[in-house]
Amino acid sequence: MAVLVINSGSSSIKYQLVEPEAGDVLASGLVERIGEAEGRITHSDRVGESESTEPIADHRAGLQLAFDMFSRDGAALAEFGVSAVGHRVVHGGKVFSKPTLVTDDVITEVDKLSSLAPLHNPPNLLGIEVARALLPDVPHVAVFDTAFFRTLPRAANTYAIDAKLAEEHGVQRYGFHGTSHHYVSEQVAEFLGRPLSDVNQIILHLGNGASASAVQGGVAIDTSMGLTPLEGLVMGTRSGDIDPGILLHLRRSAGMTVGDLDELLNRRSGLRGLCGVNDFRELSELVSAGDQSATLAYEVYVHRLRKYVGAYMVALGRLDVITFTAGVGENAPHVRADALADLEELGIVVDPESNQRRDKGPRIISAPDSKVTVLVVPTNEELAIARAAAALANDL
Ligand code: AMP
After folding, report:
1. What are the structural domains, with CATH classification, of the chain?
2. CA of 42 to the centre of ligand 1 (A)
3. CA–CA separation, 327 and 358 (whole Å)
4. Cβ(270) to ligand 1 under 6 A?
5. What is the pLDDT of residues 77-120, one digit of tens each?
6. Closest by alpha carbon to 330, among 372, 282, 377?
7. Is 44 in the pocket of ligand 1 (CB under 6 A)?
8. Are 12 and 34 in contact (CB under 8 A)?
9. Which sign does the torsion angle of CA 145, 150, 156, 159 carry?
10. Of 19, 197, 277, 299, which has the fewest Cβ atoms less than 10 A away?
11. Which of ligand 1's atoms lies nearest the C-alpha of 379?
12. Buried b (16+ CB within 10 A) or exposed e, 176-195
């Protein structure tokens, strides 16, 4: 049994063929620069890696090209016995609180939510439509980035603005990266051999995008991303929290348009805005070399992270576990050490040696006498999507 997982973006399609129980990746690939003069596909499976560049007219052509890659020397995609297709969908709004079998009605609902995620939902939908046409005989399942956070209490998901206006325009905290936070929260309980319902945890998903969540007994009670994935932690190119008055000020004093502000907050802010680079490895090299703006960027990043840890400790009341995940969280020991430095009084002690150890699996990095257990747990959104799709397909 294999599940094809598809993450369809505006000009790219990422895919993975996953065996959902063991989590083996049977094949994976990336179709890029769809609609541009020169497209590119990279594909890897047991036959090896292949790459080709050619014009890829649209998403349909891109996905067909990916399917053709399977049969280039090895088995055709059909021979893997694809039992379901799992689609990443960014915004599920108030409608979708769990993985959902794709029907025409679901497509209509996801389409309606495009106004909340104009950059993401339309290409996600395109991927669903194209894949349904190419694989019409298997169930397709939409897995929403927002779904895990449908449990947030009203006090946590309500913005203090005109309530009627907010209601009319769907303005509330939805949260994102939910598939990752959900998967990691379950991994944590499994790794510690404790029932999920007994564990109060903070999860720090630190990748190019970054978000924090507070999860009480398996139920999300707060998260740092909001109506959009802009709020919260400092990210590669996104600002995270800012005073909304800044936007009004820049509108008035710098004459910036909505488009300019959108571009500023999404692409010219965060680490890149502060020091010119958004990749954490490059940032770390600049910091080591003594670069001042990179050092400030790093300090702002860590300061914000610590604020969220403090806030979520209080929101949870009792904290058992803090977990780092995603590219930076899994691979940058100095961030983990700095984010939790000098918190002995709060019962959080990172063990320097365990923190430095490189490992692929889940691991404890706190000291034995730390009241709060600190973990590194690799996230795996594709596997989570594959499992969700397989579970729904099995129930049909
Ligand atoms: P993700 O979005 O989860 O793929 O994470 C991407 C981020 O992780 C980028 O900023 C990378 O620079 C960062 N990253 C990946 N590997 C490392 C590493 N070994 N050390 C520091 N940062 C890393």
Report:
1. 2-144 (3.30.420.40), 193-381 (3.30.420.40)
2. 20
3. 13
4. no
5. 888 889 999 999 999 999 999 999 999 999 999 999 998 888 89
6. 377
7. no
8. yes
9. positive
10. 197
11. 3
12. bbbbbbbbbbbbbbebbeee
